[in-house]
Structure formats: structure tokens, C-alpha cells
Specification:
413 residues, alpha+beta, Glycerol-3-phosphate (1)-acyltransferase, PH-domain like, 7-stranded mixed β-sheet, 7-stranded antiparallel β-sheet, 12 helices, 19 strands, 30% helix, globular
């Protein structure tokens, strides 16, 4: 055994004990079905991603060394970034086709490793799974090894991704029996089965007994970027002096949040709701092609604008983003641009729009990664607008390409 491999195993073992004595007691982790985790053979482990501590919970609970696939943004986190390669983590560029990461997954599987993947790519905001593409199905099919399953039930309630502060409650993790998918099963079918096995329905989950928390509504106004009742883009605000409550200054709606992320109405005529339902209600209201101000859009084609935005460039291997420019950030039908001219990107050239570690909103092209700061405006709103119009542009490009490739009718006569 070479020195590097021995060092990694020793560090992994040390980290396991540190997690067991610190983070696991904090999360009051409850584990079921540990016997279902395959021992001594290659396996692809898939788990829903609902909590900041999910990777360490799974690492600790599985009782075997896991090789996790994680965002390359973690490499820029002080201390953690230096430790990641030593903890058997495979960095992956989110939203991009990272062939180097895929080759590394193949190599470790061939060595008999257990590779841990969160198929959503990002933590869920409400417990409901983020969209999962057929890529995880293709990977499982290509590797041809047993797939093992893990499901967090209450992790999204312990520290919701949108919340400023954690809650103190038991995190429940369940491992279920692994499966090997037959060759005749296609990638889409495999993906659908994985989602079924690891997903949860937030409305069916309640906070366990002996749970408590403080400032439960802190962070919610940035996530619910429009009022769930009147859909005003001014959104909702924290109620001063009531750390569990939010209200809309436009329509007067007011809700009190509980530990199960349920919003209890405190105004007549306004319904109770769940944070998950409120969020998806906002998305449904604004539709697939959202516009912030219809009159403004008809006048100058601006779909969304932040008057005082800042943009920085994120460079691979560099921990601090380099400031690029500042000014009015405008989204139009085909471009994302900054008024000082330092950034002007065609939507057709954007590969991914992500909210990374630390709440950073990033736009990725084939050549650049832009970090966007939108003071006074929700990064969730910007992500939604960008993703929806990016989808529209891609559909238009695909339709145009299909039209160009279609056989032309013969000339008359």
C-alpha cells in the first residue's frame, strides 16, 4: 500500500470518529436498514439530498468507506477544499459534462469501491426532490453494479436549505435493499425507479417529537420571492418582533411558520399552506416564461432587472472570485447583460444556472463561470427567470435545427 492511500484511509477513519462525536449527536441521527448497505463489493449508492450534512451522515451511517461525488465549488472553501481529495471525494462540475469525473467514477468502481451520488445535484429546498435527469439512469446502466438506496425523511426539516438557522430534531435515514437493473431496462425507467425509491412527499412528513427551533422564518423571504397570496414581486417580509412570522405589505397576508415548515394563516380569508406548496404555487402563477413587468417588457424587452448588481468571474483553482463589473443587470429575450458592458452573454451560450455553496448564484457558459450578486432581489427569482427563459431559447434552437435538417420539398414541375 502506497503512502498516499494509507494517508487517505487514516484521515477517513479519523474523520469518521470526529463526525460520530460531533455532527451525528447534533443531528440525533436515527438509522434504519444499515444491513442493506453492500459490503466488500462495488456499488453505486444513491440518496436524496435535503440537508447540508447529508454526505457526512451517509458516510458515518454506512459503516464502509464511500467515494462521494461532490460539487467542485467545495474546492474553493478554506480548509475543506484542501481536505476533499484526501476524503475520497470526486469533484464534479455541476451543470456540465465532466468527463474527467465520470472516468474517475469508472476507475473507482472497477477497484470495488462504493460511490455515493446525490442524483439531484443540489440540495432540495423543501424536501421535494429537484428534477433528476436520465443521466443517473445511464450511469447505473453503464456501471452494471448493484445500486443501493438511502432516503432522508426529516433532514429537510432539521435545516431547510432556505433557512438561516438550524432546528434541533432527529434526522431519520433509511437504507433499503439494493437492486441490480436488467440490461433491457432503459435509462429513463431506471431513473424513474431511483426517484421512487429515494424521494419523499413533504406534506406527509412532520417534525419528530422533542424538536425545537428559533427564528423559524428567517431566510424565508428570499426563498418565497413573491407573495403566495397576491403574487406581488415585493414578496413577503419578516414580521418585526415575531421571529416565526412573515407578512405581505401589499395584501396584508400573514403566516406563522412551524417546525414542519407549515405556514399557518393569521388573517381571515387566507389559507394555511406548506412552504413547498407556496413555492410551487408562485412558480405556477408566473408560468414557463415569467415577466417581472409586462409594460416594461413591451416597451424595451427587459424581462427582469436589478439596478445595482455586481458580477465576478470564478476561475478554476482560484478560491476568490475576481470582480468583473457592476451596474444594472438585465435579462432580455436572448441575452443577459450588465450595463457597464463587462458582461454580455447570449442565453443560447449558457450551460447552467446554479445556486452554489454559500448561496452564490452562478451562470456557467462553456468558457466562463459568472458569480451574480443582486442586492435587494432574491437570487431564487433570478435563477427561476434565467432557467425558464434558457429552456425557451434551447427549445427555439432545437426547433430551428430540426427545421434546417428537414428534407426540402422538390421544386415544382
Amino acid at each position: 500500500m502506497n503512502t498516499t492511500r494509507l494517508g487517505r484511509q487514516l484521515l477517513y477513519g479519523f474523520a469518521w470518529w470526529v463526525v460520530g462525536l460531533s455532527i451525528v449527536p447534533f443531528g440525533r441521527l436515527s438509522v434504519r436498514g444499515r444491513r442493506h448497505v453492500p459490503k466488500g463489493q462495488a456499488t453505486l449508492m444513491v440518496v436524496n439530498h435535503v440537508n447540508l450534512f447529508d454526505p457526512v451522515y451517509v458516510y458515518w451511517a454506512s459503516l464502509r468507506r464511500l467515494h462521494g461525488v461532490g460539487t467542485d465549488a467545495a474546492l474553493r472553501v478554506p480548509v475543506l477544499g484542501a481536505l476533499i481529495p484526501w476524503l475520497s471525494v470526486i469533484p464534479f462540475a455541476k451543470g456540465m459534462k465532466d468527463r474527467a469525473a465520470m472516468a474517475e467514477i469508472d476507475r473507482r468502481i472497477k477497484e470495488g469501491a462504493a460511490v455515493l451520488i446525490f442524483p439531484e445535484g443540489n440540495r432540495s429546498w423543501t424536501g421535494r426532490m429537484n428534477p433528476v435527469g436520465a443521466g443517473i439512469g445511464r450511469l447505473a446502466k453503464r456501471l452494471g453494479v448493484p445500486v443501493s438506496f438511502g432516503r432522508f425523511r426529516t433532514g429537510h426539516l432539521q435545516w431547510p436549505r432556505w433557512a438561516t438557522y438550524p432546528r434541533f430534531m432527529s434526522v431519520q435515514l433509511e437504507f433499503t435493499e439494493p437492486d441490480t437493473y436488467p440490461e433491457e431496462m432503459d435509462a429513463e425507467e431506471i431513473t424513474a425507479d431511483i426517484i421512487r425509491r429515494i424521494g419523499i412527499q413533504p406534506e406527509e412528513v412532520s417534525a419528530p417529537r422533542l424538536s425545537w427551533g428559533f427564528r423559524l422564518a428567517s431566510g424565508l423571504p428570499d426563498f418565497l420571492w413573491a407573495c403566495p397570496s397576491c403574487f406581488s414581486l415585493s414578496g413577503i417580509e419578516l414580521v418585526r418582533g415575531a421571529s416565526h412570522a412573515v407578512a405581505c405589505s401589499g395584501c396584508g397576508a400573514r403566516w406563522r411558520l412551524d417546525l414542519s415548515c407549515r405556514m399557518h394563516s393569521e388573517r381571515d380569508g387566507i389559507d394555511d399552506t406548506l412552504v413547498d406548496a407556496a413555492y410551487h404555487g408562485i412558480l405556477a402563477h408566473f408560468g414557463d416564461e415569467p415577466v417581472a413587468d409586462r409594460a416594461r417588457f413591451e416597451q424595451d424587452g427587459v424581462l427582469l432587472e436589478c439596478p445595482t448588481a455586481q458580477v465576478a468571474l470564478v476561475e478554476r483553482g482560484v478560491r476568490t472570485a475576481r470582480p468583473l463589473g457592476a451596474g444594472a443587470l438585465q435579462l432580455t429575450n436572448d441575452r443577459l447583460r450588465l450595463s457597464d458592458g463587462s458582461m454580455d452573454v447570449r442565453l443560447a451560450d449558457i450551460k447552467a444556472v446554479l445556486i452554489q455553496l454559500g448561496g452564490h448564484l452562478q451562470v456557467r457558459t462553456a468558457d466562463q463561470v459568472y458569480d451574480l450578486t443582486t442586492p435587494g432581489q432574491s437570487k431564487h427569482m433570478w435563477q427561476y427567470f434565467l432557467r425558464r427563459h434558457l429552456r425557451r431559447v434551447r427549445a427555439e434552437v432545437a426547433a430551428s435545427a430540426a427545421g434546417a435538417d428537414a428534407p426540402r420539398p422538390p421544386p415544382p414541375g
